[in-house]
Amino acid sequence: MKILKAEQIRAADAYTIEHEPIASIDLMERAGKLCYEWIKNQFSLERPIRIFCGVGNNGGDGLVIGRLLKKSGYDVEMYVVQYSEDYSADFHSNLLRYKELNFGIHFIKTESDFPELAPDALVVDAIFGSGLNRPVDGIAAHCIDRINELPCIGLAIDIPSGLFAEENAENTGSVFIADVTLCFEVPKLSFLLPNGGSFVGEFEIIDIGLDKEFLEKQESPFILIREELADSIPVSRQKFSHKGSFGHALICAGSLGKVGASILASKACLRSGVGLLTVNSPLIGMQSLHTSVPEAMVLPSESEFHLKSLPKLNAFNVIGIGPGIGLHEETASLLKLLIQEFDGPMVLDADALNILSENKTWISFLPKNSILTPHPGEFRRLVGEWSSDNERLDKQIEFSKTHGVYLILKGAHTSIACPDGRIFFNSSGNPGMSTAGSGDVLTGMLTALLAQGFSSLEASILGVYHHGKAGDMAAEVRGQLAMTAGDIIDHLDFR
């Protein structure tokens, strides 16, 4: 699914209106009805619903929703936030439709007009849409701030009011804080970045029937990884294949106190289909690895407590390095030697990235199409500070293009930057995966997928999506609070 700019969606609206053909007010009716049906499926008639509309087309959507809910017997109160006397044509038409049914409607023109809201109310935000291009102030800001102070459930229509669709610099105005956002057709870029995403809550994509051929022709470097995209990459095996058909990976991991990282990465690698796995481990990890991961071969490094030496590299077609390796000077030298001597793709995570951040001249010598998997702190050490999410995104794209590598920036909606400038955002996963060892699991998965012959992009998409999917399955069993990295491995399933 492409992530389009607000202006592209408006163009798709106009194209659909002209070529379906459908009147703009009927397209608004269709969008509002779909939101109404979503609300009806989620909330009973006993739930009080309070809808706050602006005077533009987003407010028109809110009026449609309110009219349909009211006709279905819901306890609905409609409020028009009168920040302007200039009504959009479709808002005005729906306002007349609402009034013709003799449903009560309230206009908020001053701060004293703001109503009392029951704490169990569902508050529907339809004040501003995706066309907003300046911070919210005045009476609209007052209403948003008052709603945000209350314990009500917040539902945003298309986009939380006050949030910009693309520009994700620090907001200087008020922004509605939603628990759920019903976004039309495609998510906005700001939904997938930390600052904007904090206002969105969970988002549901509502297909309002915009012209699919027109949407498909729109260009965008931003793509959302959904199940359909991950499933389009075949993972089936041939009848006469054997373990040699699926690669031989080397994982370099572990040090004193961090042997668990090598175990997690190795288990995940095997669970993700690698044919053969060798683990390069300091002596202190040998027994634990033999016991915990009997399917892996283990080659000892020359040091007892840290990685110091490498095996011959010609046996391996991919190498993963970083989980728990520490920052010892001899380990840094090992990484430098590996970069100099290995021609195949590498997966670099954790302390391998921290070593690189202290030796930035090495980055240019990384094998092309290698995969780096920093979390935001590790990425900051690699590229320096940023002042906004957009600047961070620009740095991620530039790093990938400059060095010819795939950079996976981990977090909510983990993003994959490609050397061709595209960014893929993940749709699976949950906050329960913010737990020690989760990144080690991803490193093992990516290493296995590369070893089997998947391209770096395919491996990144499959690894990130199925990592998150396994986390979602684990959360269903354990709950997010109780989840561990081992639970993610236990729920890996590429079917």
From the spread of the alpha carbons, the general shape counts as: elongated
User: What is the CATH superfamily of the largest domain?
Assistant: Ribokinase
CATH architecture of the largest domain: 3-Layer(aba) Sandwich
Question: How are the strands ordered across the major sheet?
Answer: 8-17-16-15-14-13-12-9-10-11
Topology-level CATH name of the largest domain: UDP-N-acetylmuramoyl-L-alanine:D-glutamate ligase
Count of domains: 2
What does this protein look like?
This protein is α/β, with parallel strands linked by helices and 495 residues long. The chain has 17 helices and 17 strands. The protein is elongated, with a radius of gyration of 26 Å.
Set out the fold topology:
Layout: H1 6-19, H2 24-42, E1 49-53, H3 57-71, E2 76-81, H4 89-100, E3 105-108, E4 122-126, H5 138-148, E5 153-157, E6 180-184, H6 194-200, E7 202-206, H7 212-217, E8 222-225, H8 227-231, E9 248-252, H9 259-271, E10 276-281, H10 286-292, E11 297-300, E12 318-321, H11 329-341, E13 346-348, H12 351-358, E14 371-372, H13 376-383, H14 389-403, E15 406-409, E16 415-417, E17 423-426, H15 438-451, H16 456-478, H17 485-490
Parallel strand pairs: 1-2, 1-4, 2-3, 4-5, 5-6, 6-7, 8-17, 9-10, 9-12, 10-11, 12-13, 13-14, 14-15
Antiparallel strand pairs: 15-16, 16-17
Helix pairs in contact: 2-3, 3-4, 9-15, 12-13, 15-16
Defining traits:
495 residues, alpha/beta, Rossmann fold, UDP-N-acetylmuramoyl-L-alanine:D-glutamate ligase, 2 domains, 10-stranded mixed β-sheet, 7-stranded parallel β-sheet, 40% helix, 15% strand, elongated
